[in-house]
Amino acid sequence: MGRYVARRLLQMIPVFIGSTLLVFSMMYALPGDPVRALAGEQTVDPAQIAAMKKDLGLDLPLWHQYWNYMVGLFQGDFGTQIASGRPVADIISEAFPITVRLTLFAFTFTVLVGISIGVFAGMKADTLRDRGLLILTLLLISVPSFVLGFLGQYFFAFQLGWVNPNVSGEANWNELFLPAVVLGSLSLAYVARLTRTSIAENLRSDYMRTAVAKGLPRRRIIGVHLMRNSMIPVVTFLGTDLGALMGGAVVTEGIFNVKGVGYNIFDALRHREGATVVGIVTLIVVVYLVSSLLVDLLYAVLDPRIRYA
Amino acid sequence: MRGAAHAGRVACAVAVVLAASGCGGASDVIGGPNGVVRSSWGDPQNPLEPANTNEVQGGKVLDMVFRGLKRYNPKTGKAENALAEKIDTADSTHFTVTVKDGWTFSDGEKVTAKSFVDAWNYGANVDNNQKNAYFFQYIDGYDKVHPESGQPTARALSGLKVTGPRTFTVTLSQRFSTWPDTLGYAAFAPLPRAFYDHHADWLAKPVGNGPYTVENYTKGSQMSLRTWKGYPGADRPRNGGVDLVVYTDNNTAYTDLVAGNLDLVDDVPASQLKNVRSDLSGRYINSPAGIIQTLAFPYYDKEWNTPDAAKVRTGLSMAINRKQITDTIFRKTRTPATDWTSPVLGADGGYLAGLCGRACDYDAAAAKQLIQRGGGIPHGRLTITYNADTGSHKEWVDAVCNSINNALGNDKACVGGPVGTFADFRNRIGQRKLTGPFRAGWQMDYPLIQNFLQPLYYTNASSNDGKWSDPRFDRLINEANADPDTKSAIRTFQRAEGVVRDRMAAIPLWYQNGSAGYSDRVSHVALNPFSVPVYNEIRVS
């Protein structure tokens, strides 16, 4: 187990370097000059642009810029924004807490409601109740998140007045409720469907029959034997979903005025702020790597047949 | 080591998240003369240094926190003395400036002649990387502190001399009679010692001499400005302060305005223009701003730089149905242009409606004829280059092309050429590789006719992207700048504008309006000619 984890952690290093290099070169390859764009449609002073580029190290060849970036990164320096001159670490430390909060909220919602719906439907597969829930999840999958977002905003904020339409700068928990539900609803549909199929399948398996024959109480059969074994595909999905929720909330964050990671990546891409994009993407890569490691470790917990040497 | 500190902060922030923060965010809403206006804002791109801010979001703050020698009247746009007691000149080259007595910065430091001279020297010096450095280009010695290449050979502008606690002299490198009227621009603001001595602290919480002081500034979230009780100026605020709240875009800000969580939105999203009057029951402003949109041409391309091509350009101008486009696409937030300046200048300032004449009137038949007489469109097809990432330019470029195609009876005469990002768009213009017209927008720096002509059409001028050049135009501009009499100078500027018309150096499209919506909590809301809300006049009920 310990060796397995150590090996996995070591494997993260090449993945980490590879993905940062990839993102870094993609930002480098984008057309346009972010320093020049600062001046807008006003005067360009080539001397000043050259001086700013030199200060920021943007006049160096790609490999040298990447080297500087990595050296900085290992000392904890995420680089500096071109336009504002602010350290990227500041931007990250503002955006990540908000997004982590939103993601945790959406994730909890997905897990609790999604698995409940899945179990509820899967226990009585092919009944009216099951069909109804399947149609509901199909609806959630097919409706784009911005439609859900605007509908939610319209009904809950403007018609019913239960919540504020937007999230303020502080991004409190109660404000994040609606965005989190909208953000989590797509994953919720997938989780519900995965759980339902898995439960329905495992209900017919041999070990379930054995457990029933042994005379175990029903709560224990479902809660421990059935659930544990049915959770493997769901956990796999949830692991990758955590990363997707963190980085992919651009649309939802935009609708509800959440100044989180998605919004900041989008903004940085528009202004070609290379260091900001690479910094944030790097952190999301780390989140992906760690969550997939956790998922793999959870397999062993869920299914006693899986062992890691 | 600096980096290590940042990493620590990231880790802390992530840890803090896990502790729930249930504290309420609603700001206390009070009314009356102490009421605070909640206004929409976008995080300024640049640090908030006066000589480094060239966009409107940072400009809003500077307008509240600073007062310069001159201030542009929010209604008429005329430059009026603010901190200047008088600015004298005998020859339009040497100026003597006297600063009013009794002004201080909000930290108590007196505003003196030196406060101005030091600030201007700081702004001009190439080492300080100030984006508005070119505003000081007319002052003698600019080429020493801001050389085109290499290191500066002087620290201070030789044309600036402090002659007393409240007086200083300015020597320009050329005659420029209306130069004092440019001094209302934020780049010319005075700066306190704290700006130089504690620069990082100052940037985190700017200190100036304007009617408001910065009480609190959380980057990316909100800036709270409060009325400065000790403000000596005549334009004392009618409210207790302004909270500038950062929004991800103008749509979310508009949503909050409709929901009653915000008092003022100074940029109504295009998609909401059809609802705005009913949503806000008439609390909507749509007033001219000092912005003109044009189509510029690449004169480095030989085929565009011929006498016949001028006919083609005039023909193209006549083929554009400006009224239809401004009515349908822009819902009257743009006004068809009939000259190359802006209505905010007023007739006294040099705006002359109809100067363009027939060349800006839609006349499909005459347009077709003119273009044929000019030998047809150079390169056979017109591609209008624009950037697709901001400002929904695609809609109007397509409409302009449609209008031209209809006039010429040829579906393929004109097409739009989108470029992904603004940065890349500017790059292509800079590389001079375009073979057709491109989108050009000009937002005035100061309300003078000179600012609409010289930077854009003078030979090798800073924003003359198409590299247009005409000796007659240059001569008239020089003549106008040297003329000490403002009235006759403006007439000369208008004659220069006539040259632009006759050669159709750029096709004027429309004047842009500023738009704003506000809640029923506030009144006396107006936009100044720079489309920035006049915050100090707003009253909270």
Structure description:
The complex is a heterodimer of chains A (309) and B (541). Chain A is mainly alpha-helical and 309 residues long. Chain A has a domain at 88-302: MetI-like (MetI-like fold). Chain A has 13 helices and no strands. The model of chain A has no long low-confidence stretch (mean pLDDT 86). By secondary structure, chain B is an alpha+beta fold. Chain B has 17 helices and 19 strands. Chain B has helices at 2-18, 56-65, 113-124, 142-145, 193-197, 199-204, 250-258, 276-279, 307-318, 322-328, 346-349, 364-373, 393-408, 422-431, 449-457, 471-482, 486-503, and strands at residues 36-41, 70-72, 79-81, 84-89, 94-99, 160-162, 167-171, 212-218, 222-227, 241-246, 264-265, 284-296, 334-336, 382-387, 414-419, 438-443, 506-518, 522-523, 539-540. In chain B, the strands form six sheets. In chain B, strands 11, 12, 13, 16 and 17 form a five-stranded antiparallel β-sheet that branches. In chain B, strands 1-10-9-8 form a four-stranded mixed β-sheet, covered by helices on one side. In chain B, strands 4-5-7-6 form a four-stranded antiparallel β-sheet, with helices on one face. Chain B is globular. The interface between A and B is large, with 66 and 73 residues.
